[in-house]
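Researcher: Let's walk through a ligand-bound prediction step by step. First, I give you the protein sequence. Second, the SMILES string for flavin-adenine dinucleotide. Third, you return the three-dimensional complex as structure tokens. Ready?
Model: Ready.
Researcher: Here are steps one and two:
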Amino acid sequence: MTTAIDVQVRGSGIVGKALALALGRIGVTVALQAEPRRADAPEDVRAYALNAASVRLLASLKVWDALAPGDATPVYDMRVRGDDGASALEFSAWQQRVGELAWIVDAAAVERELDSALRFAPHVSVGTALQPAALTAICEGRASAGRAELGVAFDEHPYGQRAIAARLTASAPHAGTALQWFRSPDVLALLPIDKPRGGASYALVWSLPDARARALLDADDAGFVAELMAATGGAAGELALASRRAAWPLSVGQARSWCGPGWVLLGDAAHVIHPLAGQGLNLGLADVAALVDVIAAREPWRRLGDERLLRRYVRQRAAPTWAMQRTTDALWRLFSHDADAFKGLRNQGIGAVNRITPLKRWLTAQALNS
Ligand SMILES: Cc1cc2nc3c(=O)[nH]c(=O)nc-3n(C[C@H](O)[C@H](O)[C@H](O)COP(=O)(O)OP(=O)(O)OC[C@H]3O[C@@H](n4cnc5c(N)ncnc54)[C@H](O)[C@@H]3O)c2cc1C
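Model: Step three, the predicted complex:
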């Protein structure tokens, strides 16, 4: 089949947009299928924790440097507390000998800068229609229609939890410290971000059982903040809501196959994980980097849709994705047990890990490099 374009990218989330830009930069012609944005669609209130590899990819696409001050905030320290509030696991960039542990980025700002870059991208056209192409890259997220059309099964296990996200302001400066509570039945993260109020704002990710999450979404602002203050015990000072609240159902899942003749899956269309470690998008952006490397290094005679070529990408990505899924799932299981014996054990575990510097270094390195 002769086609006018090389790659059709289906799905214009961060993974799809980054893939279109990255392919365009190596001279591949791309059509990016974007669903028309509803005028009344609210902005994403999430902020993402991005690792160094994701930052490098966005920098190579000229997106990172275009972010406004306040859209990206470095994390220098991270404090994880257990059920009793006393046992804590502390990570620092200084101990890890890196500049920062992660960056917290405004999700809507990253999308906006990707859109701007796409307007000037050579070889990339953006539209709503699907076009015949040598390769279709499916980046439509966990409920991908393209994946379903191909008949590819998605093994998904719901956690019976929802993650509530919102922006907060705080009475105390965040000092570049991420605060996390791992306990039963919730996992709560306050991620430092310099928007909307200088050095005193956080992005909230609060994972809770469905019924509890629904009750917190239905509560009025004052009721929600009172629950949040009780859950954080004032560790971040007085907190106030600075955005609407939004929630996402949580699951772990994986597509049975990630590629076939003329098609490939990336990002959440291929795999989803619990957000407790802030790694889902990092995995998706690592997929982008791997696929673009594989395509750039292909033999001159090899077609883009050749399944043997696409399997090189899957071989690179399957093991790290599997490891991250297992790690986040095991953490969730460990912390979702309510029994006192479990609570005692995991609190002791947190304390013990905190005292073993090489183990902490190893754990941090896994998160930084995944
Ligand atoms: C509360 C929460 C917090 C998180 N925090 C972090 C974090 O700190 N760090 C991190 O790395 N990850 C985090 N994640 C995970 C991250 O959000 C996802 O891994 C990431 O958004 C996946 O990107 P994607 O582009 O693959 O999919 P999506 O973001 O789901 O984007 C898919 C896009 O495709 C579009 N689409 C779907 N169907 C079609 C179609 N038929 N045609 C055209 N377009 C279509 C959709 O509208 C959407 O725009 C978090 C997740 C949640 C829920």
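Researcher: And what stands out?
Model: The first strand starts at residue 5 and ends at 10. The pocket of flavin-adenine dinucleotide is lined by residues 10-16, 33, 35, 46, 48-49, 139-141, 145, 163, 165, 205, 248, 267-268, 275, 278-282, 284 (CB under 6 Å).
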